[in-house]
Write a structure and sequence with these properties.
- The complex is a heterodimer of chains A (367) and B (473).
- Chain A contains 14 helices and no strands.
- By secondary structure, chain A is an all-alpha fold.
- The radius of gyration of chain A is 22 Å and the shape is globular.
- Chain B has a two-stranded antiparallel sheet with strand order 1-2.
- Chain B is elongated, with a radius of gyration of 26 Å.
- The chains are: A mainly alpha (367), B mainly alpha (473).
- Chains A and B meet through helix 2, helix 3, helix 5, helix 7 and helix 13 of A and helix 2, helix 3 and helix 4 of B.
- The complex binds protoporphyrin IX containing FE (HEM).
- Protoporphyrin IX containing FE binds at residues 24, 27, 31, 34-35, 72, 75-76, 79-80, 82-83, 86, 112, 146, 149-150, 153-154, 156-157, 160, 185, 189 of chain A.
- Residues 24, 27, 31, 34-35, 72, 75-76, 79-80, 82-83, 86, 112, 146, 149-150, 153-154, 156-157, 160, 185, 189 of chain A line the site of protoporphyrin IX containing FE.
Chain lengths: 367, 473
Amino acid sequence: MNLPFPLGFPAPTAFYLTLYILTFALHQAFMHYVLAGSLYVAWTTSFPGRDSVSRNDQPIAATLRDWLPFLLSAAITAGVAPLLFIQIVYQKQFYTANLLLWWRWMLVVPILIIAFYLLYLLKSKIMAHWPHIARSLVAISTAACFVFVGFCWTANHLLSVSEARWPEVYVTGQLPFTPFEVLARMGIWISDSFATLAAILAWQLYRRQSDRSADIVGPATRNLAVMALGGLGLLTLAGLTYILTAADKTRDSLFDSGTLPYLIISVVGVAMQVAGWFQQWRFGRLTGLWSTVVSTGSVLTLLAMSFAREAIRAGVLDMPQLFQRHADAAKVGGFTVFLIFTVLVSAAIAWCFVTVHRGLKVQPPVA
Amino acid sequence: MLDVFPVNDYGPIMPGLVMAAVAIVHVFLAQFAVGGGILLCYLQWLGMTGRNPHARQFVAGYFKVLVLISFVLGALTGVGIWFTAIQVSPHTIGSMVQNFHWLWATEWLFFSLEIVSGYCFYRYHSRLSDNASMVLLVIYAVASWMSLYLINGILSWQLTPGRWLETHTLFDGFYNPSFWPSLLFRTVVAMTLASLAACVVINLMTSVDREAKTSLMNRVAELLIPMVIMPGLGLWFLAVMPADSRSWVLGGSPAMMLFLNISIGSSLAIGAYALLGLVLQRLFINTATAGLLLLLAFGATAGGEFVREGSRKPYSVRHVLYSNSIRPQDVAQMRVVGCTANDPYPLRNDSIYPNDQVRLGGKVFRRQCSVCHTVEGTNGVTELTGAWDTNQCRLNIAKLQHTKPFMPPFAGTPQELEALVQFINWSSAERPEAWRENTDPTDFAQIKTWLEEAGTAPGDFKQNNKRRQELIR
Ligand code: HEM
């Protein structure tokens, strides 16, 4: 019986791995919102439906357009922390993959800049009088940018664990994996991103639910449930495909007794989300209790999948070779500084929220 | 010896230039954001205390610009600089991360605070009281200045590690000799940029009349006053710089000197105009003039960053790592085992090389020279060696750190050096299909002697100057 991953490793390795995974999971939460959100907006913009209120003006799409720019900021900022820790945990692997992808990797930043401004364009009123086709094009391009960025991260990840192929990739410039491998992996996070999106949107809509009439709340709730249940269904399919087609070594590390707990927790998380959405579908509105169940399930799934993802990578790499670097990193000072500022900055963030919350109570919304 | 990473070919430009370009854009935007925080707090205070009735409107408009420019471009060019640094020199960024990751993690906390406070203000300030808005702005300003404070310590360590070299403690590295002058310098620059950008924004405001605009402009111009201490801070910085770096900047390297002059010239022009026109005479400046001043400020930033990047040569972290990712303590060993022994990457287009010696030379060039030189483009070696015969070329490369002390010592075997010389000659001869391999043992023996004479220590610019003067005499 092994200790749960990453506790079997020497303390510095386990410590940096855990920090990496926790910050990575935070990045994923925001990233999921942006990715699935922009895909959803691409759909509602292109197919506004025949109802009296276009899909694009219904609460979900309107909320998304309003919040996507901020959530993208959050996804990028949250990405900086795992970007930092990965350079300690897998320095050589990460750098080499970056270098081998080369200009393909350097495209990520300009693409994100374009996507960011497209999000602001989607949010602004400038596009209101544009022809349908132009608006659709903007929305689809935005989503495509995010899918592409996600693809780059996946490619980088797959490349970073194929050390034996690096020289060949350097010379030929060709990536050492099949489209199927990439798609199976992308399938997992794209499908889960819809479940995460629905869990976050639930709270955003719940806050304003009492201001809205039942004929708006009902369909919105059901749309969210479809989004979440569809995402979770696809996640199950993609996960099974991944497990069935994975290399033996990968499968072994997935079912290793150190990783199995995470697999079980992610299944529990999925079950909680399914139950929560099923109930809210039945009620035709969002409830605090079941939204909490959904969010808890979503957090569990996200965290457990992040741990499992890392356990798989650790199973493929020669980890003992990396221990020394982690031990060296653990010797440099500054952790106390970080802890102190974690407390101070968290307090300042809380202060911001309190300030806004109190301020809005004094000054109710204008209209 | 350190791991060898795959090196990409940038064609006619050198990697350092790519790095400088991204860094300049990012530094410009990031400093604008830091100064913006300070400026907004000041204007909010003016508005709240009734000192300027139009200040509130300005604050709202200016913050929108800040969000659209700095939150998007500033944040993403920050990621971009990181990605570029990995491309250009993975070992440099790796050693910075290894030594300072907790400070970087702390900086990340402040980034998070910046976006939370910033977005809270952006979204809700129209519905918040003056005091609540001020709280958010102050938090935003402190957070963004703290991110400058933290990154400044890490970057200045690269040039002046100071006592850290002996103690290896975090605080010696962070509070290194150039920490304070560069922090203060950057803070003044940040305020200048924010103020100049504000002049543009004020011009574009449609809801207030000319008189109101002038009154606002006079206020934002007050942030230009600290520019008077810039010359002093600049001299302080020069004084704590290592003597050799100082000598490159002050004439040792024409390119560096040019960029320093651009930087000083543009700053003087802005300073003179700002103080005389905006502060003393309380003039109004139109969009074009404000834009021009901002452009000059960009020039000054560009020159300054270029000098900062360039003056570290031959190191990327002084006394710790040469720009070509070779550690000073590894040179002696690499003279024996070679610099290509642990390089797993074949050359791209392997088939165009006429023989194994030239091929080896190509690998030596890639490993030791390509970070600062191209073959035929900017700073191209074929051109730089154009006037030398083969023996001179061998001699000058064997004594690379004495040829120009802003180059590291050659870190390879005599065989590798000869291969490099053959590679350069073959490239100069426009890459013919056939090329004779040189196996003459006397050449190798001569190279070995020269390498021994050169030693493995870095070049000394004082001795080098003396030698040069003797040669001239
Ligand atoms: C909104 C745009 C982005 C999307 C859609 C996105 C998507 C992803 C995805 C799908 C992965 C997992 C890849 C896999 O396991 O196959 C990932 C990993 C990661 N992302 Fe992002 N990302 C985005 C922006 C960023 C940014 C701007 C940063 C850095 C500041 C960042 C930092 C990271 C890091 C460090 C990892 C872990 C890489 C690894 O473990 O190999 N991401 N991202």
